[in-house]
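[Meeting: bench + compute handoff]

Bench side (C.D.) handed over the final construct sequence. Compute side (W.E.) agreed to return the predicted structure before the next meeting so the bench team could plan truncations. Sequence as handed over:
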Amino acid sequence: MRATKGLRHWNAGIANDSDFWAASFPSDDMSLLPGIPNSMKVGSIRFGLSLLSGGGAGIDFRLVPCINPSGSTTYQQFCLSGYATGTGGLDTPFPIGLRTEILFHPLAADT
């Protein structure tokens, strides 16, 4: 599935020393993934990112606990953890499936 013609609400990225993005896969050859069942975990993905300027929503976020790649807890505005999967032969624009959970907590407009 692709989303198009939407409006950008947030920009997230690396803004300080505690922010991170980490992914691990068993191979650098992504052409193997379409043949792997989409129920099979083939790698891990984890990030803890900050809200950057340039988004259109004007919303701020509380810090949420996030486990970084070394296993320590940090506090980030966006925290994602999950894993990659194969696509099981599905015709997708990307050779990879994702099963992830993202944690963020917008501040109410009046707080």
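W.E. noted at the follow-up: The chain has no helices and nine strands. C.D. will use this when planning the next construct.
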